[in-house]
Fold Glucose-6-phosphate 1-dehydrogenase.
Amino acid sequence: MQTDSSFTFVLFGGTGDLSMRKILPALYEAHRAGLLAETGKIVAVARHEDNRDAYLAWVNEHVKPHVSKNGLDEAAWTSFLERVLYVKLDLSRPEDFGVLRDAVGTLPGIRVFYLATGPSLFVPICRALASVGLNENARIVLEKPLGYDLRSSNAINDAVGEIFAEGQIYRIDHYLGKEPVQNLLALRFGNALFEPLWRREWVESIQITIAEELGVEGRGDFYDNTGALRDMVQNHLLQLLSIIAMEPPHSMDADAVRDEKLRVLRSLKPIDPRDISKVAVRGQYHAGGIRGTPVPAYSTEKGVKPDSTTETFVALKVEIENWRWAGVPFFLRTGKRLADRVAEIVVNFRPVPHSALGATALRPGANRLVIRLQPNETIRLYCLAKQPGEGMNLASVHLDLAFDQFFREGQMEAYQRLLLDVISGRLALFVRRDEQEAAWRWVEPILGEWANSNKPPKPYAAGTWGPAASSAMLAQHGTCWLEEEN
Ligand code: BG6
């Protein structure tokens, strides 16, 4: 569906990495698919290029290669570039924002300001926009990281909140824009089959993994001051957890969905600092190999302090204190340089209460739902079946649902969906301030404890599944990570 009215999409950080890899390619795809209103304009703001021609040359050189991998349509690319305008501006000089007002003030439709910049510029940019009256009829998009802890995130939210109302603020968590994450809502609330079982009476434990093979990819400086807990857990993993655990919302209205997610985040059992070593594992990779290719230790990456204690791996045991989930452990894990790139949710159902069919009916490999979010979106339901032949021997079998076999086209990249949502004013897939606060509040004791601890993160070899302590934590609960089962 095409965005129905005109818009001006102002991209701060127009020559940055995110603009190059994600935002401009996503806008091009939306344009190519005919999803952007004809009159919509994209105004890139940066200081490196002198004028529009120089900026378009930069786009051709740097953005086109990221677009081409999906097969470039030259005619669409040319017409896409016609939408792109350029404003040269030094963001540290609020007194210069008049130039931006002159460039966009008379363009029709809603204004979207996308801040693909470091968080230290969020507040100065918002204030400068207000000083030239550009905060009216506008939406503002804030990229993560939004703050470093609860206090700094509140400081940004307070300052931005003085200029933009909450309904104008779009906080990006790109995981919420992923097709399979959307599909979790469809799976849970579109089917009667799973919902009655989706509770403590039937679920023994849940695992959520986001594993990456990549390392810090030239972002050593940023990452070393951030770590996996802030980079992945506070946002992506807790958002996934809240979607898996939330109550059915009464509608897909933005606040109906976000209210339910918030309830989950507020029901997370607070972590007692004395228990951290039992419920949280932090690791850091040393040298190893990913699929046979040697990779260096984290501590030798560019921008990383040689004696860094920043975690590149986190595993957590989380509990939700409500009637649906009391006592069910949720195991969360994420890490860089792990054995595989996979994002997956594993729902382990309880075995049958009494096995008339013998001990194999109690085996853990059955009664399980595995929802793979990436790289290939699949849902696999494991059951037990009788092995053919004599006797009653059971074996684990599975029903497979591979989405690309059902829907051969129409998949949309996360950023494309999110940008279209901003332009169209749909807030459901963006993080509300209270959700963000609840997530920070919950991770803070872990951050505090780790910052004060004199124990370094546990080492793991690049290309493995993280430190042994991660497996040991699950073993204490009589379970193991999915890949350890065979
Ligand atoms: C980002 C993190 O938010 O998500 C990165 O900052 C991480 O460190 C990335 O690599 C993972 O996203 P995806 O979509 O590749 O799973």
